[in-house]
Design brief:
globular, ATP hydrolysis activity, five-stranded parallel β-sheet, about 425 residues, six-stranded mixed β-sheet, ligase, Mg-protoporphyrin IX chelatase, 17 strands, plastid, alpha/beta
Length: about 425
């Protein structure tokens, strides 16, 4: 087999046939209804088939069709796609905004931190920083041809078809690919986000085909929502459901599809444009506040760097290539050594004491602070968390979890810092 580019899985309904699947991989799952003894079919609806079952039971047979491509052609397509992409501002070239950059890096090192919410003034480089992260994202192993970026070694982030093949002992083709970043537009429909049924195939071929949405594409990757505080409520509900369970379930036209949807949720917004719903805010592992740079020299440097990038993006990116590669190596090393980083029991107790005395609801604050401190220690090349690591990350982990007091004028991050020094002193 030269390689697999795109396939489809067709589910047929037969009478008294056991479930089976063949060894290929699909980007869409197609469902067709075929006549069999004991089933009467009627064409009473447009784009669909109405059926009724008599005495026999339905069993599902999954058949797949793979298309072969030349690996050289596939590589050429990747290079052409890379060249056609618009140039991205280098992450290493961003001046200032250290808090925001650190939160983003820690989430790349440990995706289980749960994402980051970036709030700040207009024109402070929030979306630029997030999108520049693409160049630093490491590679991960995925099952070739799978629409959900299934991990060949972790059942928690595998699609149902991949799981079934593994249970049967079939060998899965594995490939390496960069972590994906998916933009969720404010005007996106629920069908585009969750996935939907391909009506065109239903009308032309009589086949019900599932088209994966943005949540499927973002599995094991990053889902970025710019101006997240302006997102429609129905999309917020979808994100909450997926973020809570790690799975996305689509119920359409009598078909139920579930697939893994574990992603790093990154949002950005301007607080002047409205508050975020507390349920969604709590789903973000960390919260970074971005302010406008006040130092005149730094402002001039930012303007000059931006002018250089706009004038010649390729040359500008090449000038930061060495720094970008250094950051990439740091991230790779930190991800590799993360599991070996430890945190003393007394430090864990003090973290939980800070959370308790600040009246933080739930235990997410405790968990995220421990994870972020370990990720920071790994980024610094150490195998043990110290007090300084905790002091750096704890405001970002707890700031957005404090109960709002309308009469309180002090910033919530400062409250966290005060309580930290009180407990850790």
């Amino acid at each position: 087999m030269a390689g697999l580019l795109g396939t489809s899985s067709t589910v047929r309904f037969f009478a008294s046939k056991p479930f089976s699947s063949q060894s290929h991989y699909s980007k869409s799952s197609s469902f067709s209804l075929c006549p069999s003894p004991g089933i009467s079919l009627g064409r009473n609806s447009v784009g669909g088939t109405e059926f009724k079952k008599e005495r026999s039971k339905f069993h599902v047979l999954v058949s797949n069709v793979a298309t072969e491509i030349n690996p050289a052609e596939e590589q050429a397509q990747k290079l052409a796609s890379k060249e056609s992409q618009r140039p991205v501002y280098p992450f290493a070239a961003i001046v200032g905004q250290d808090e925001m950059k650190l939160c983003l890096l820690l989430n790349v090192i440990d995706p289980k931190i749960g994402g980051v919410m970036i709030m700040g003034d207009r024109g402070t480089g929030k979306s630029t920083a997030v999108r520049s992260l693409v160049d630093l994202l490491p590679e991960i192993k995925v099952v070739a041809g799978d629409a959900f970026n299934s991990d060949p070694d972790d059942p928690e982030v595998q699609g149902m078809e991949v799981r079934e093949k593994l249970m049967k002992g079939e060998e899965l083709p594995v490939m390496s690919t960069k972590i994906n970043m998916v933009d969720l537009p404010l005007g996106a429909t629920e069908d585009r986000v969750c996935g939907t049924i391909d009506i065109e195939k239903a009308l032309t071929e009589g086949v019900k085909a599932f088209e994966p949405g943005l949540l499927a594409k973002a599995n094991r990757g990053i889902l970025y929502v710019d101006e997240v505080n302006l997102l429609d409520d129905h999309l917020v509900d979808v994100l909450l459901d997926s973020a809570a369970s790690g799975w996305n379930t689509v119920e359409r036209e009598g078909i139920s599809i579930s697939h893994p949807a574990r992603f790093i949720l990154i949002g950005s917004g301007n607080p002047e444009e409205g508050e975020l719903r507390p349920q969604l805010l709590d789903r973000f592992g960390m919260h970074a506040q971005v302010g406008t740079v006040k130092d005149a020299e730094l402002r001039v440097k930012i303007v000059e760097e931006r002018a250089r990038f706009d004038g010649n993006p390729k040359e500008f990116r090449e000038s930061y290539e060495a720094e970008q590669e250094k950051l990439q190596k740091q991230i790779y090393s930190a991800r590799s050594s993360l599991s070996a980083v430890t945190i003393d029991h007394d430090l864990r107790v003090k973290i939980s004491k800070v959370c308790a005395e600040l009246n933080v609801d739930g235990l997410r604050g405790d968990i995220v602070t421990n994870r972020a401190a370990r990720a920071l220690a790994a980024l610094k090349g150490r195998d043990k968390v110290n007090t300084e690591d905790i002091s750096i990350v704890i405001p970002n982990c707890l700031r957005h979890r404090l109960r709002k007091d309308p009469l309180e004028s002090i910033d919530s991050g400062l409250l966290v810092i005060e309580k930290f020094y009180e407990v850790f002193a």
